[in-house]
Write the structure tokens for this entry.
Amino acid sequence: MEEKHNEDILRYNKTRIHHVVVPKYGVNSSANKSEICGICLAEYENEETIGTLWCDYKYHA
């Protein structure tokens, strides 16, 4: 039963690798937005794994 519960949780928990975008028009470009962890409020580092819940809440995975 616990195994089925874990499968249900993982179905709603997606992960991805964060890649830092190098701004085309310089550092002060409006396209240069950093992503921040919703739990620890730290910026994500390049190639760091980020988890996303079904409600679009993002965090370090």
Q: What stands out?
A: The mean pLDDT is 77. The chain has one helix and three strands. The chain has one domain: 2-60.
